[in-house]
Design brief:
Number of helices of chain A: 3
Distance between the termini of chain A: 29 Å
Radius of gyration of chain B: 21 Å
Strand content of chain A: 35-45%
Radius of gyration of chain A: 15 Å
Largest sheet of chain B: 7 strands, antiparallel
Strand content of chain B: 35-45%
Distance between the termini of chain B: 26 Å
Largest sheet of chain A: 5 strands, antiparallel
Oligomer: heterodimer
Structural class of chain A: mainly beta
Structural class of chain B: mainly beta
Strand order of the largest sheet of chain B: 20-21-22-23-24-25-26
Order of helices and strands of chain A: HEEHEEEEHEE
Organism (chain B): Pyxidicoccus parkwayensis
Helix content of chain B: under 10%
Shape of chain B: globular
Number of strands of chain A: 8
Keywords (chain B): Iron, Metal-binding, Oxidoreductase
Family (chain B): Belongs to the carotenoid oxygenase family.
Protein name (chain B): Carotenoid oxygenase family protein
Pfam family, one (chain B): RPE65
Amino acid sequence: MNLKLLLPALLLGASADAATLTLNLEGLQEAKGHVYISVAADADAFDGKGRPTAVQRVEVTGPKLTVTFPDLAPGTYAVSLFHDANGNGKLDTNFIGIPKEGYGFSNNVGERGKPKFSEAKFTLAAEGTTLDIVVF
Amino acid sequence: MDRRSLLQGMAATLLAGCVGPRVSIPAPGAPPDWGLGWRSVTVDALEPVAARVRGRFPAPLHGTLYRNGPARLERGGERVSHWFMGDGMVQAFRIGPGGLTHHGRFVQTPIHRGERVRGNEAFNPANTSVLAVGGDLLALCEAGAAYRLDPRTLETRGPKEWGPELESMPFSAHPLPERDGSYWNFGLAPYASEQGLLLLYHFDAGGRLLQWTHLPTPFPGYAHAFTQTERHLVLLLAPLLWEGERGVTWFDAEAWQPSRGTAVLLVDKADLSRVTVRELPAGFVFHFGHAWEDGDRVRAYACWYEDAQFMHTDLATTARGRAAGVKHARLAEVEIPLGEGRGRVTPTSHGAEFPVMDARFLGRRARVHFVTLEDTDASRPHGGAIGRVDVESGGVQRFDYGPGVIPEEHLFVPSGAREGQGWLVGTSLDCVRAETRVAAFDAEHLEDGPVAMAVLPRALPVGIHGTFVKA
């Protein structure tokens, strides 16, 4: 991880309006690999065309996992995640694009395919927000 | 026996009580409750009941008529938005010398059981048709995997696995029988790429995959069924475009883009990689009649709609049918040049759906189409009649089930060498008396009325397609 990139984030974290986003994940199929989580503040970032506000890679040890993002500015976000069970660093799909590994979004949308930012968006309150996310 | 009096005498007989719980019979002259056809079954299995039979089912019809259709039209306490989204329930009508019994069971898909689903299986209620192969009865739905059922008990055995790479791949509800006993099928994955993907399957009567392939489509359009000649598989791709990026699926009105016209894919059966693309005017087809190669062109019959209205009609409107402005299809002649050039569509005057042909003549020049006649009486929300249309002579034989009745697809069972010589067997829903019936006809003499009619002590929701398996 590049420390230069981390510095602005740490400064952000010191701001008075820092809020904590807590994600309770459930339904992880295998206790192996990592889950990659992205928090996006707009449609471009959500669709992979821009930079997400925050990302984390967390080891999977069981069907449930709690992950916190402690220093986000309150506002509108959408979460997307996938479970890289086999450790190849990507979400594996079959040849028609159906994921072979677990994935999920805020608001638990996306069972039928990738949702829009507007469907997955939620408001992070100043006092913090907790979301339950089912991994499909 | 006089078959006309058979029907007339039925009402009186039926008042004499039936087995099992019954909806009370309304007073004479009560209006039909068309909504009965789209009412949910609230139990997972309908236990076997015997029907009251008048007349006699001929020996060639001793066997089982299986039908599939959406029978639970709520999910999470809300009505589903479209008829095609309801959970599939397979009905079995067993016909024997002793009469007719019925039982039914929901297909245990993940969505029926309320389990978490992902990807295209989230669209698959296994609700469209059935096919008997390899000791299984397959419940078919174009969205994804076929589900294997026990043909006797209708219990779900699990998804049909054609091979490791093909798990939950789209597999249409309309496989085509080849002369050697094998079957062709296709599947559409419009979300697989910008232009969409067509899968082709060839499998044997034992349910083993012989070959499969996939190829890009000209655009991510829609097809519910396909047809064949002796040399080609013929797929019409309607300009109904699935655009995942815009969040548009086939069920959204903005998916209809008639300016693109209809694309025709002619696939060489001897080499599935050889595909010829032709163009037809914009239109929409669920089902095909006969098709064959006529010199320099493919001639095919199809139930042709001017647009994709039916895909964008909500459940309440579907239930009211023509009364709510739902347009019917017309049987149309389609000409597709094998060489260069654009194809032609010539609708006939026959409003028709659920075409069934004598399968012994598939791929060759043939004439007989058994259909539900959709334009019998415009004042009725649902056509009310079945017909036998001869596309060569233009002749139509019809049998009108009478007011308040919704006829469903009738299947042909051959008995004799002539095209269309045999028996027709099919279900209908009487929306006045709240009962489902099964009738058999001499397929060459529909006007004579049924030779046998079985009346169930229950009303089943309107289904889609079926198959007949001889005893």
